[in-house]
Design goal:
It is an enzyme of class 3 (hydrolase). GO terms for molecular function: serine-type carboxypeptidase activity. Keywords: Carboxypeptidase, Disulfide bond, Glycoprotein, Hydrolase, Protease, Secreted, Signal. InterPro entries: AB_hydrolase_fold, Peptidase_S10, Ser_caboxypep_his_AS, Ser_caboxypep_ser_AS. Probable carboxypeptidase. The chain is of the alpha/beta class. It folds into 2 domains: 1-204 and 301-453, 3-Layer(aba) Sandwich (Rossmann fold), CATH 3.40.50; 206-300, Rossmann fold (3-Layer(aba) Sandwich), CATH 3.40.50.1820. The chain has 13 helices and 15 strands. It has helices spanning 80-88, 137-154, 171-188, 206-219, 225-234, 237-244, 251-264, 304-310, 313-318, 348-356, 374-388, 428-431, 433-445; strands at 37-45, 50-57, 68-72, 92-95, 98-101, 111-116, 125-126, 134-135, 163-168, 194-200, 337-338, 360-366, 392-401, 404-412, 416-421. The strands form 3 sheets. Strands 1, 2, 3, 6, 7, 9, 10, 12, 13, 14 and 15 form an 11-stranded mixed sheet that branches. The protein has a two-stranded antiparallel ribbon with strand order 4-5. Helix 2 packs across helix 3. The longest helix is centred in the N-terminal third of the chain and has 18 residues, at 137-154. It starts with 36 loop residues before the first strand and ends in an 8-residue tail after the last helix. The model is unreliable at 1-16, 279-283 and 293-301 (pLDDT under 50).
Length: 453
């Protein structure tokens, strides 16, 4: 680990810093950048030797004036480093031996913190693994809030900074539960300046989210009328997933899912039904919320570049990362024992409590995702707005990115928003980076999405 940066490091954006030991001089193959990067470990349990790995990139310009944004990927068990930072909204994308600059990186607008959580994901580890890899939502939220507390000790200049929590997929569980703990802590002692949360294609209410899949398939021509009826009345998707995770798939659900799989075809990417290129294993962050039929196989070709890059020894050294208890860095953990039945516990009521506490909430949907379709998310946001008595403050309308329609949006009570990202997949910043950045900027600034181009 570096204690004194070499002289040439100054030309790569490295300066004196309270957390200099975690400073990244330069990542292998990285182009020149003016912003600073940091990565390393934060211990969340001394007794059990449990540590979470983070990657932090300061804003491209004037980081002292920009907010702090935590990004979490889903799974549960998939890496915010490999998926979020290196495939979606981080500053670089691996390409062979080099890193390519992402011109739509979210650190154009914020200081971005990526966390590999829970323990057992990516480079995060526990040396006493017997007691620590069986986790659930509650344990994950607890570790994440401890991480943030300790991370602020490394980076005290960010303690009073505006804080936003963001993520996608199963982060629809991670983020609201972390935000809830933050508010509980703040009620006793104001430690966090939490301003808002943004959730992309999130799991918020199991049945509504999952059962909107049938209508999405049917409306996009992926299944027949008769299969749509079976998928709605014979065995809906939430029933199938519940049975699957209890090892008790009924004959009727087996029959229906077999027919759905046949008609939708293994050659259509369920995470982007319009995509006709090879499927990214970043999409396997939804492996739990979309259990694969035996006949289906996710193609990992796009993610191979990230996997290969993060398994290089020189890269791991530059990141101050180590492999503990595993031989390779993986996009999604195969050693984590997550309580997948937590999936069935709705987080929508928690989101409602956040809105009541004055935390701004954005739910956004890539509109080509059939795994957590926009129809379910839109229904849930409308339901929440009704329950909270929020009036529409921005009526349902298009928003623009560049000179094209970027998607549609509706805002309730200036605190709860829904938006679609046109042409985007389950991983919206991966498939529509420019539109996703426009959405992100508007969210941070608390402004409605642009009405004109």
């Amino acid at each position: 680990m570096l204690t004194q940066p070499p002289l040439y490091a100054l030309h790569w954006g490295f300066q004196s810093h309270p957390s200099q030991v975690d400073g990244i001089t330069r990542l292998p193959g990285q182009p020149w950048v003016a912003f600073q990067q940091f990565s390393g470990y934060v211990t969340v349990d001394d007794k059990e030797h449990r540590a979470l790995f983070y990657y932090f990139v300061e804003a491209e310009t004037d980081p002292a004036s920009k907010p702090l944004v935590l990004w979490l990927n889903g799974g549960p068990g998939c890496s915010s480093l490999g998926v979020g930072a290196f495939s979606e909204n981080g500053p670089f994308r691996p390409d062979g031996d080099v890193l390519i600059k992402n011109e739509y990186s979210w650190n154009r607008e914020a200081n971005m913190l990526y966390l590999e959580t829970p323990i057992g994901v990516g480079f995060s580890y526990a040396t006493n693994s017997s007691s620590s890899l069986a986790v659930d939502d509650k344990a994950t939220a607890r570790d994440n809030v401890i991480f943030l507390k300790h991370w602020f000790n490394k980076f005290p200049q960010y303690k009073q900074r505006d804080l936003f929590l963001t993520g996608e997929s199963y982060a629809g569980h991670y983020v609201p539960q972390l935000a809830k703990l933050i508010i509980e802590i703040n009620n006793k002692e104001k430690l966090f300046n939490l301003k808002g949360i943004a959730l992309g294609n999130p799991v918020l209410e199991f049945a509504t989210d999952f059962n909107s899949r049938a209508e999405f398939f049917w409306s996009h021509g992926l299944i027949s009328d008769s299969t749509y009826q079976m998928f709605t009345n014979g065995c809906n998707y939430s029933r199938y997933v519940s049975e699957y995770y209890r090892d008790s798939v009924s004959p009727v659900c087996s029959r229906v899912m077999s027919q759905v799989s046949t008609e939708t075809s293994k050659f259509v990417d369920k995470y982007d039904v319009t995509l006709d290129v090879c499927i990214s294993s970043a999409l396997s962050q939804s492996k739990v919320i979309s259990p694969q039929q035996a006949t289906e196989r996710v193609d990992v070709c796009v993610e191979d570049k990230t996997v290969n890059y993060l398994n290089r020894k020189d890269v791991q050294n530059a990141l101050h990362a180590q492999l503990v208890g595993v031989r390779r860095w993986e996009v999604c953990s195969n050693i984590l024992d997550y309580d997948v039945l937590n999936l069935e516990i709705p987080t929508l009521p928690i989101v409602g409590s956040l809105v009541k506490a004055g935390v701004r909430v954005l739910v956004y949907s890539g509109d080509q995702d059939s795994v957590i379709p926009l129809t379910g998310s839109r229904t849930l946001v409308q339901k929440l707005a009704r329950e909270l008595g929020l009036n529409t403050t921005v009526p349902y309308r298009v928003w623009f990115g560049g000179q094209q329609v970027g998607g549609w949006t509706q805002v309730y009570g200036n605190v709860l928003s829904f938006a679609t990202i046109r042409g985007a997949s389950h991983e919206a910043p991966f498939s529509q980076p420019e539109r996703s950045l426009i959405l992100f900027k508007s969210f941070l600034e608390g402004r409605p999405l642009p009405e004109i181009f």
